[in-house]
């Protein structure tokens, strides 16, 4: 009896002989009780974590391939409506792809030319202002209640000069050359991947779905459509918000006569793709340029302009353009940014949030077009409270 768990009990009565009870069951297992279920769950978690760690390790070893692949997929999703519109007008896929790539190259070339022109036009003036600002800074340092050891400053400058002329700096420069070579390789690979995604994206996805049948096939279709929709909406919404930020800050810098206003505005646009952190970095850089070139009063005004534009964007523009379905909690964004930065540096920080948004979007359509996965559905009391 101790080796069996009772499942059913049959009671037989035989007159006055009493009641005879016979237990019918199956052998008892160590995995059948609560502790056994916990152990099974722990093993499952270990397997999932090990699998995720292996995938992340493989991605980090093949960043020259994986990062261009992800960027090309994001850009292809962003330009998917344009490709659909061109195909709807009877334009062949190859011609539509070439038109899209030419438009992208034209915009990037124009922006790059404007940046180079602005920097070259204002560089001499900025250098002169920077020298004057440094002189004023040293004069202000002389008025402090404590003395600054100029010999120590000279020693730091000498140490910096020795490092620049050392073999260690030379090896670092060689590493930088290797990084530039990897960047060029990744850029070329990304362009090629983007070309094929734009031209043959739907056919490529249909080919990948051939092994699926029935409900798995329908789920894979929902996942693919949701991925393209989320990535495209995220990139287009973020680009629009970033453009508004850049224009607003550009107007403020031009009014305050801060040099390098156009390059700083472009930098604001690029950094806006890193949520939370990007706006802060852009504001700091703009304030530093204003501090060196125009003084601390103008620098404070620049900080005020940056804060005002970011507040208007965050409270008015972003909720309208991004939509509630694209919004992630600030805590989730912070965790995603941290993980992305640790795993992939600046590129990881840029890609972390859209990838997280895609993962959450897939969860939202896992069991149906408007049915989230079972574990992600709100409880009855929670749903009533939200209404």
Automatic annotation (TrEMBL):
GO terms for biological process: transmembrane transport. The keyword Membrane applies. It is a multi-pass membrane protein. It comes from the Bacteria. InterPro entries: AI-2E-like (IPR002549). The chain crosses the membrane at residues 38-59, 65-86, 98-119, 173-198, 246-274, 280-309, 330-363. GO terms for cellular component: plasma membrane. It is found in: Cell membrane. Pfam families: AI-2E_transport (PF01594). Keywords: Cell membrane, Membrane, Transmembrane, Transmembrane helix, Transport. PANTHER family: PERMEASE PERM-RELATED (PTHR21716:SF53), TRANSMEMBRANE PROTEIN (PTHR21716). Belongs to the autoinducer-2 exporter (AI-2E) (TC 2.A.86) family. This is Membrane protein. It comes from Microbacterium hominis.
